[in-house]
Amino acid sequence: SVALIGASGDPKKNTSRPQRFLRKHGYAGRVFLVNPSRSEIFGEKTYPDLRAVPDPVDHVFIMVPTEAVLDAVAQCCEKKVRVATIFSDGFAETGADGRRRQDEVVRLAREGGVRLLGPNCIGLVNTQAHLALSVNAVLEKADVTSGPVAIVSQSGSMMGSLMSRGQGRGLGFSKLVSVGNESDIGVGEITEMLADDPDTRTILLFMETVRDADRLAAAARRAYAACKPVVVYKLGRSEVGRDLATSHTGAMTGSDDTAGAFFRAHGMLRVEMLETLFELPALVANQKPSTRHRVGAMTTTGGGAATVVDRLGVYGVEVVPPTEQVISDLARKGIRIGRSRLTDLTLAGAKKEIYGGVLNALLGSDHCDLVLAAVGSSSQFQPHIAIEPIVEATPKANPLAVFCAPQADTSLKLLNEAGIAAFRTPEACADAIRAWRDWRAPADTPAPDAARIAAAQALLGAARRLNEHEACRVFSALGVPQALAEVITDPAQRVGVGFPAVAKVLSPDIAHKTEARAVRLNVTSDEELAAAYEEILVNARAYKKDARIEGVLVQRMEQGLAEVIVGYKRDPQVGPVVVLGVGGTLAEIYRDFAVRLAPVSVAEALRMIEQVKGLAIIRGYRNLPRGDCEALAEAVSAFSQLASVTPRVLEAEINPLIVKPEGQGVVAVDGLLVLGENEPPRRQDRQENQGQNKGKS
Q1: Which helix (H) or strand (E) is 321 found in, with range?
Q2: To 10 degrees, the CA torsion angle through 246, 251, 255, 260?
Q3: Among 281, 318, 575, 650, which residue has the least CB neighbours within 10 Å?
Q4: What integer pLDDT is reported at residue 526 of this predicted model?
Q5: Could you write out the DSSP letters of every residue in 239-307?
Q6: Residue 250 or 697, more confident
Q7: How many of the other CB atoms lie within 10 Å of CB of 320?
């Protein structure tokens, strides 16, 4: 049973829609209307308040002015309602005052045992129950087709668009949920429910931010175990950074980079195009990620297929030619194909047996792991030539992606009905294959090294920002090799690190010493060191007058094959992350880096090294001497253990970490470490900081 608090008799108002939609879409449960100023609405009895409803109520939809929401929730508590969806806005999305109103509503609901969806929420649809509990205008005319796909959206205004676009591509839906401000029930908990829902096989998420990362991570892993792919479209790809840190790491990794690392770590697929969100599900339905990602491509339209294959090349997806075995097997059947990476049948004759023969040969071969079939004009005018062989193809374990170059609605419908992934644009097709290539099983989190973590924690003081020497001692305790170093506080002081040496200011308040002109390289004698000491202090004080100067750090000069940056930060959305990129003062400009959730294993750190293009110089590129990649991976893994250190580390960085020739290790020659608070921020604080604005239509 459902109650509508604030139901309206004015058909022009949003608040009149839920009553009409429930009836239009065939909801068979009881519907109670609550409006103190009306005795009936559209011929149905109304009640002055929820208390007056004589029967139990399972779900309440609240559509009253902001100031009346608290009383409506109080009535739900008295009535022992299990769930209330709040359409009303004017809460956390409006600022601090709205946040306080929302907190009070949540407190009251929790005390009364009522779960909340919203506020600022456009509603939900459950097709199995014919429950269209929403104000979304698309439900006025559209009939929602039942099917295995669920959508959860953080954007209320997009719910109708997602529904209509999905149906236009042949999708049937099990559940559609708008979450609004996520004051209580959020994306993670709903995803968890959908992972257990027998009517749902694929879960699509339209996201603006990651709010409850731990809950969503657990839910995504649960869905993965149930063989239910979770596909994410997230806004914010253009955001290149945020003002969270003063280190290069903060400049390099914006929220979108860390969100991408989060999705990948927990077995979710991320798409770049909205079209892909609806066309990808059939490609990965009932699948698990492949360990190999070679694509075999065939076509009856050379140019049409090239529009997909060219984009696959930009994404770095491997497109492979047919093997000699495939070529000879087809030749024995009278079908001759070439050795090109794109098997073009344009000149082979538009015959069903040719197209079907080549397709089955590629699907049955182990030289590729996915087959791309691009269809030309026959998909528009003669579906029996190319589309029927696809539908009739012998099912194989490898997925099949079909791109129809012309507008071919009949063919697309045939493919959708057969459960075959069909794409209308080359961009969406390539994006889907890239997402399939990037899909991984949920990552294992390495066990913390208790001894090293205890040693690092013992070196942390009360100050939030450590100086470089203190930071490097912490990194060394975790297992990251450090350059030999001493601190001097007098220009006449002698050092035992040897020459040549590097001298630099030691201050917790000067993060970028090069900018302060407070570094001297290649110091070769005590006299040079004394002169460098005086010059460094003068420049440092000129750069930042109130900086705490704790001496000069003198390090043995180190050389190697390459310099890398290793960064760490505690992202407010997804938690601890580790970053690896090309080092030096221009680190943030090139944006060539790999991001992972921390901590990482040595094996995952090796994959990070492979991902960074600029590190090809230590991977043996064109016979260049190989760097010690194993030692680098071990250092990255050790550094990522900062995620387990208490007090909590807010951000840290080694820039540069010098990579020596293979077998000679790595050595850190600079470090930064900033401590945060010991307790994690409250979930609602994170939401407020992210300043999310939820819209409705």
Answers
A1: none
A2: -130
A3: 318
A4: 95
A5: ----TT-SSHHHHH--HHHHHHHHHHHTT-EEESSHHHHHHSHHHHTT----S--EEEEEES-HHHHHH
A6: 250
A7: 14
φ and ψ at 655, to 5 degrees? Answer: -155, 100
115 and 82 in contact (C-beta within 8 Å)? yes
Give the integer Cα–Cα distance in Å for 219 and 575: 16
- Helix/strand/coil (H/E/C) assignment for every residue in 581-642: EECCCCHHHHCCEEEEECCCCHHHHHHHHHHCHHHHHHCCHHHCCCECHHHHHHHHHHHHHH
Say which DSSP state 447 is in.
Answer: P
pLDDT tens for each residue of 268-277? 999 999 999 9
Q: Which residues face 146 on adjacent strands?
A: 173
Tokens of 401: 């992606």
pLDDT of 386 higher than 50 = yes
**H helices present in 516-579, as ranges:** 526-543
Which residues fall within 8 angstroms of residue 147, CB to CB, at 6 or more apart?
A: 127, 171, 172, 173, 174
Q: Are 362 and 298 in contact (CB under 8 A)?
A: yes
Burial of 241 (0-12, 13-18, 19+ CB in 10 A): middle
**Phi, psi (rounded to 5 degrees) for 516:** -80, 0
Numbers of helices and strands, H then E, in the chain: 24, 31
Strand order in the sheet with 131-134: 131-134, 123-126, 173-178, 146-153, 202-207, 230-234, 269-271
Please tell me whether residue 521 adopts helix, strand or coil conformation: strand
Distance, CA of 655 to chain centre = 26
- In DSSP terms, 668 is beta-bridged to 482, 657
Tokens of 677: 């608070």
Q: Alpha-carbon distance 266 to 481, whole Å?
A: 31
- Rounded Cα distance, 658 and 638, in Å: 16
Instruction: Assess contact for 39 and 46: CB atoms under 8 A.
Output: yes
Of the candidates 407, 404, 412, 400, which has an alpha carbon nearest to the alpha carbon of residue 358?
400
C-alpha–C-alpha distance, residues 517 and 534, integer Å: 12
Percentage of residues in the chain with pLDDT exceeding 70?
93
Task: Name the β-bridge partners of 575.
Answer: 571
CA distance 282 to 229: 10
**Residue 72 to residues 87, 90, 106, 114, 359, Cα–Cα distance (Å):** 12, 15, 12, 12, 61
Output b/e per residue, 415-447; b: 16+ Cβ within 10 A: bbeeebbbbbbbbbbbbbbbbbbbbbebbeebe
Rounded Cα distance between 361 and 326, Å, is 7
Q: For the chain, percent helix, then strand, then coil, each to nearest 5?
A: 40, 20, 40
Cis omega (within 30 of 0) on the bond before 148? no
CA distance 518 to 532: 9
Distance CA 187, CA 206 (A): 10
Compute the CA torsion angle 127, 130, 134, 136 (nearest 10 deg): 70
pLDDT, tens digit, for every residue of 49-102? 999 999 999 999 999 999 999 999 999 999 999 999 999 999 999 989 999 999
Task: Give the closest residue to 634 by CA, choosing from 669, 663, 673.
Answer: 663
What's the average model confidence in pLDDT over 100-129? Answer: 97
Cα gap 132→258, rounded to integer Å:
35
Whole-structure pTM value: 0.90
* Tokens 């299990």 -> residue: 82
Among the residue ranges 249-258, 300-309, 632-641, the one predicted with the least confidence is: 249-258
List all residues 6 or more positions away from 119 whose beta carbon is below 8 Å from its beta carbon: 62, 69, 86, 87, 88, 89, 90, 91, 102, 105, 180, 181, 183
